[in-house]
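Technical note accompanying the year-one report. For the benefit of new consortium partners, we illustrate the data format agreed upon in the data management plan: each record pairs a sequence with a structure-token string. No post-processing was applied to the example shown here.
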Amino acid sequence: MKKFRVFVLPLYVLCLIFCSCNGLTAGYIEGTYSYKTSGVVSITNGSSTTDASLDNLMGTLDIKRLNGDSILLIFNELNGDMVSVAAQVKGDSILMPPYQKVFSITTTSTSSIFQTNTTQTTKYLVTLTGYGISMDNMLMFYQKIVSGKVLNSGESRSIKANNLKTVAKKNQ
């Protein structure tokens, strides 16, 4: 009987360890990451649409466990902006509910008459949503802009994006 216990008990413990690893856990991804966001946005002004790349969005991402599978994502950009998002860990994904953020978008227009380029940076208040996945010590977030408008302006330009990517690597 003792030999049976000595054999079965370690096997039982190993089974518990391997069978409980179904997807991500809030504790597993908790920590500090370095991140970079990239993508192309479409800016609509009346009937014309312009595509523009996001300015360099880099910084640190702190992930704090709240309770159960709830986490807090704190994006702290190098330019000083910061946004926090209460998210959920479900299966193998991190689900991000809609949240608001300010994007600075730089566009360049060329005058064919004067042969000059004009660069303009505009701030947009956008609502984003998306999800993330974990790959070893990295997280990949896929987001889209569901709505957006020029910040503090009466301008009618709007902004949309379906394929923004954020890559975050865990700091050691």
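Partners are asked to follow this layout when depositing records. Residues 2-19 form the longest helix (18 residues).
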